[in-house]
Amino acid sequence: MLFEKITFQNEHGDRLAARLDQPADEHPSAYVLFAHCFTCSKNLKAVGTISRALTQQGLAVLRFDFTGLGESEGDFAETNFSSNVDDLVCAADLLAERFDAPRVLLGHSLGGAAVLQAARRIDSAQAVATIGAPYDPEHVTHLLRDSVDEIERTGQATVTLAGRSFTIKKQFLDDLEGTKMEKTIGSLDRALMIFHSPFDQTVGIDNAARIFEAAKHPKSFVSLDRADHLLTDEADSRYVGNVVGAWARKYVGPTDPAPRETDEQAADRVITRTGDGFRTEVLGGGHAFVADEPKSMGGTDTGPTPYDLLLAGLGSCTGMTLRMYADRKDWPLEETVVRLSHGKVHAADCDDCESTDGKVDRIEREVEVRGDLTDEQRERLLEIANKCPVHRTLHNEIVVASSLRDAVVKA
Predict the structure, then answer these.
(1) 6, 59, 170, 295: most buried by Cβ count inside 10 Å?
(2) In angstroms, rounded to a whole number, what is the distance separating the alpha carbons of residues 188 and 211?
(3) What domain range includes position 357?
């Protein structure tokens, strides 16, 4: 996905590191502001997977590191839940100033509680989604249970979370204790979607029940069956992104931050973006999907291969061409099924190939036409199949004019 690295200042002047993920056509229908989990970062794998799923549905996602975490400046020991909320408001202001104000707020774990709290200060937000969020931010203290006494006694303690050491001060605990969510959730006045796993060992499922009970409609709950708290299984985080994107469309009206292509312009243009590995985002005619390679080839098998897409182009063109021809002739064609396969054969073994040396590409195409058709009509349709535009393109001389374009990723 297209991304831009951004920095912005929090209320204390610390520079926070952010990443803006954009859909392939660079014209998002709306912006999502994403808050990561406690002591995590914007680069958590689940955060990236969710963002990718959202961009494939036409949404842009701003994710950033809270003060003192990841690539952001500041002292984590001086932060607390309230300062995280302040950081979110600063991030929303950044979007409003440079792009478009966020219409969707999305938060994971304590970040989920933070977006619930921040929503009242972000007027543009129309929908809020939480993932594994605690009903009460003070719930986080159970992660610090072995150090709470020391923090209360000495004013601070060094704790180890997920293999990393953090200094937690008493003001952090005091701030959590002073934050009450029931009134905040009850007066949210935005569409709310709650994701939670009944197998979450970090934040129990009862937290989702209490958030749901406190919230007013419209509200929705999605059970993440067998998912862990950090959504380490990519299928779980991808599912969350897909559902959030579909749900948000009901509440998020379209925006036009930049002129969009006309249908005619988009129809002649395909954009692909390949990042890590072989997984490639494809935008064609305004429609987004994914291409990939099978796991045996080093891919992740999340989409058709490039040759699958080539065959799909020929097969779909064949079916459409036969439909147009049959309709024009008023023939009773009910359905066309085209089965295709691709391989390479030795030219010497190919009776109908012009080449005599090396190997040639061979596409096998089997056309099945269904309906009350005569034998003559069926034979004529097979002849027409060979005249579909993609078939002709594959047989004509093809010139691919390649050029370099300046990178659009900004550091």
Answers:
(1) 59
(2) 11
(3) 306-395
